[in-house]
Design goal:
Layout lengths: L3 H15 L4 E6 L19 E7 L2 E6 L3 E5 L5 E5 L9 E7 L2 E6 L6 E5 L5 H7 L13 H9 L5 H7 L8 H11 L12 H25 L8 H8 L19 E5 L2 E5 L6
Helix pairs in contact: 1-6, 3-6, 4-5, 5-6, 6-7
The structure holds a DNA duplex.
DNA sequence: ACGTCTACCTGTCGGC
DNA sequence: TGCCGACAGGTAGACG
């Protein structure tokens, strides 16, 4: 579920409501990817100051330190005055003065980790080597171009790695390469300047559009999968193996790259 | 430093 | 209907 757009949509949906609430209780379910890293007691009484995002991590600033929240493959967050009784896959919960924040994550690849600061200790470990934010000023074409030229890996895998630019997950990697007309297997350093410009623009465009679409379908957080459904109806190639390319009519191909599925149109992407 | 692979976990779906 | 393998939106950490 969560690539950058979903995480950002989640952030926007929660930020205003959660700002200023104070933590009154902490409930843990089964272990997530890492331990919380702080005694639960120390969170009690702390106020939530803001909710930010870095890559696919949510950063919840507290009076002391911050919580890094990652949704992994299957995580979703809800925040409401009251929630139904906790289920088998609800593995983290904060009871606050303004409602209950709950992480639902069946596969438990997600994480909630406390860090004293975002640029030290666990914060640095998790956030320190992330690439630039695709929707911020720092994502310049020249920087992107230099990054492409430094890498010999297939362009799809470079995008997915998050080392150059964060937030492009497995769905959007296929989608942006289709939009830019670049074969996913092409070594990054072999992508030409004009194609790189198309790709740079496609990344911004696709992610921004997805956020806008997610914002409209996920606004009330009652149907958690609303966004994924909406996006996949308009996907150009993702999960469309064998179906006609929307541009040329040829069959969409599916291959494996680094144990992940990639979809593309062999005729439109060179 | 770079590229590749493994591991973590549960649910779902297609084929037999 | 039931079982079984393949696969799923991520990424740190280990290894060569």
């Amino acid at each position: 579920m969560p690539e950058l757009p979903e995480v950002e949509v989640t952030r926007r949906g929660l930020a205003d409501a959660i700002q200023g609430v104070s933590i009154e209780g902490v409930q843990l379910g089964k272990p997530l990817r890492w331990p919380l890293g702080i005694a639960e007691q120390r969170l009690l009484g702390q106020a939530v100051r803001s909710l930010r995002r870095r890559g696919k991590y949510l950063l919840m600033d507290l009076d002391e330190g911050l919580l890094l929240i990652h949704l992994g493959m299957s995580g979703s967050l809800r925040f409401a005055p009251e929630l139904p009784p906790r289920g088998a896959h609800d593995h983290f919960e904060l009871r606050t003065s303004g409602g209950v924040l709950r992480l639902h994550d069946p596969r438990r690849f997600g994480a909630v980790v406390w860090a004293e600061r975002e640029d030290a200790g666990m914060g640095l470990k998790l956030l320190g080597s992330l690439g630039v934010e695709p929707l911020e000023e720092g994502f310049t074409f020249e920087g992107f171009w230099r990054g492409l030229q430094r890498s010999r890996v297939a362009i799809k895998q470079l995008l997915l790695s998050g080392k150059l630019v964060v937030g492009v997950g497995n769905i959007y990697a296929s989608e942006v390469l289709f939009l830019a007309g670049i074969a996913p297997t092409k070594p990054a350093r072999r992508v030409g300047r004009a194609a790189a410009q198309r790709l740079h623009a496609a990344i911004r465009q696709v992610l921004a559009q997805a956020i806008a679409a997610g914002g409209s379908t996920l606004r009330d957080f009652s149907h958690v999968d609303g966004y994924a459904g909406a996006f996949q109806e308009q996907a150009s190639v993702y999960d469309r193996a064998g179906q006609p390319c929307r541009r040329c009519g040829g069959a969409v191909a599916q291959i494996q790259q680094g144990q992940r599925s990639t979809y593309y149109c062999p005729r439109c992407q060179k």
